Structure formats: C-alpha cells, structure tokens
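> call design_seq(struct)
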C-alpha cells in the first residue's frame, strides 16, 4: 500500500543544530564544520544509497565548484544571528512499488520542478531502511537553502506579509480576509501546499508507469470522506521490539552484577569480623555448635566416650573387685 509521507522542518541554530552536521549525517560523509571547528564523521553509517547536490541552471560559478562541505559552511558563515534559520529539511517516502532503478529519477524530477527551478540548492540523500512490516522503506532527505544565490554568496530571504484581500473579501462579522502579499515567497504556506501536490502528481505518474494500481493521496481521511480513524505510526513499536530483548539481557546482567556486589560486600564484612578475635566464651560456644552440627551429619553412630570412674565417690557393686 503506497502511503503519502511528506514533512518539512527548519534547521535552527537556536536549537543547537549545525547544518554541516546535518548534511554529514544524511549523506553519510565526513565533513568539517568551520564555525564550530569540529569534524562530523558519519562515513560508517548504513542505509545511505546515494547522495547528490542539485543546483539551479543559472547558479554562479562558486556554487558549481562547491563541495558539500564548502556549500554548507558558506551557509553557516553567512548567517550571523545566534537564532538563525540555516536550512529547510524535507523528508518524504518513496513508494516501494516504484522500481529501484526509477527512484533516483523520480526524486530528481520532483526536486528540480518544485525547488531547484525556483533558485534553491537541494542536497538530497536517498535512504532505504526496514519498515515496521519488515519490508524496505525507501525515502529521501533533502536539505534546501533558504536564500537566493548571488555571485558572492547569498541574498536576502524571500519573505511575505499578511495583507487584506485586494478583492475586498470579508468575513461574516465584517473583518477583512487576510492573504499573503507575496504568493511566490519561499516561506508562503500556499507554496508548500503546491509542493505537496506536485509530489503526489509526480509519484502517482511513476506508479502508473510501473504498472502498479497503488496511489498516494495528500488529503486527510476527513477530506477524502473516510470515517475511519488514522492508524498510529509503528516506528517506535518496531524499535521497542528489539529494545525489549536488549533491555531484558541488560537487566539480567545488572541483577547478576548487583548479586555479586552483595556477595563481595558480605565476604568483606566476614573477613573484617574474623580479623577481630572473639571473646573465649563466644569461641567455645561456636566450636561446640560446630561439633554438634558435624555429629548430626555423621551417618555412622559413635560409641559414647569412656568415662573415668576411678575417682567416683560411690562406685557401683559391679565395679568392685
């Protein structure tokens, strides 16, 4: 079953994040962050099938020659504020019904149409992990620049304001209806809704070419007129299944370690007590008790010890000679 999964977030410096670190992790590479003077090495991580940077057709020369490390270090250097917004991250699922050889072209066509053609640089990484049903889960992570390119770096961000509708539309109570002043702004909600629609159209076209009857739909269940409730994501449950076994084994190790710590402490206490000589009466009672226990465990009956009656004040007649 093909599912529509499309989400966007902002990588913010105020959250303690670095766009260089984000690029290194998603691409599975080793990148040096010049601002933090720190190297982020994710070259050993798995699940990354491919990573590529797409640039606009009219991009200046420095962008064409820039590596992934240089590109995102330039973004970091251009942003001066401690709460700067560094990049957008787009994550979307690729329908597994699309053949593996068509997935790269599918993502490339979508990014060029919706983002790169508008002046953004798109750094994309194709990932493929295991889904909650045990099958493959192909998806893409895309880092998008937030400023238009210039010959020397980046220009001002594309912004918009909310203004009264030029057509004069109002609400029932007379308040003017507000619309965006710049519908082409990269920050405009309507623009990102068009991006969601573009992905739905392009992905469904790829599914049709692959001969699959599955289709994705960006609309909610309510918008589609469906009465069923949405199913919860199973990502955490999938990991909890493995985590349970690990935690069970670790808890056993913890219990065993705690037991041996208790035994070790008891032994130390016993040796410490043995180092102090007990009083003679205590020692005699202990030895007597110990001998009684040995006697109880001895299966062979012992003859009673002979008694010396030579000094008895009242000897019996049998003992007289």
């Amino acid at each position: 079953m093909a599912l529509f999964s499309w989400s966007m977030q902002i990588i913010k410096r105020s959250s303690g994040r670095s766009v260089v670190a984000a690029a290194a992790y998603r691409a599975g590479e080793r990148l040096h962050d010049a601002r933090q003077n720190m190297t982020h090495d994710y070259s050993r991580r798995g699940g990354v099938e491919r990573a590529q940077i797409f640039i606009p057709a009219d991009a200046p020369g420095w962008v064409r020659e820039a590596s992934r490390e240089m590109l995102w270090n330039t973004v970091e250097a251009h942003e001066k504020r401690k709460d700067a917004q560094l990049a957008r991250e787009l994550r979307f699922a690729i329908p597994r019904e699309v053949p593996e050889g068509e997935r790269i072209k599918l993502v490339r066509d979508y990014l060029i149409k919706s983002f790169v053609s508008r002046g953004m640089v798109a750094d994309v990484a194709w990932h493929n992990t295991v889904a909650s049903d045990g099958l493959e889960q192909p998806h893409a992570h895309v880092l998008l620049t937030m400023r238009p390119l210039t010959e020397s770096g980046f220009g001002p961000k594309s912004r918009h304001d909310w203004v009264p509708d030029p057509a004069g539309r109002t609400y029932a109570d007379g308040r003017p209806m507000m619309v965006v002043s710049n519908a082409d702004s990269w920050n405009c909600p309507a623009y990102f809704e068009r991006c969601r629609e573009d992905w739905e159209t392009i992905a469904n076209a790829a599914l049709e070419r692959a001969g699959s009857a599955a289709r994705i739909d960006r609309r909610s269940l309510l918008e589609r007129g469906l009465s069923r409730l949405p199913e919860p994501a199973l990502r955490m449950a999938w990991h909890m299944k493995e985590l349970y076994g690990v935690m069970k084994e670790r808890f056993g190790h913890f219990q065993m370690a705690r037991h041996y710590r208790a035994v070790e402490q008891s032994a130390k206490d016993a040796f410490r007590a043995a180092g102090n000589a007990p009083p003679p009466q205590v020692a005699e009672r202990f030895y007597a008790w110990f001998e009684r226990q040995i006697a109880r465990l001895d299966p062979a009956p012992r003859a009673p010890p002979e008694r010396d009656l030579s000094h008895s004040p009242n000897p019996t007649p049998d003992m007289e000679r």
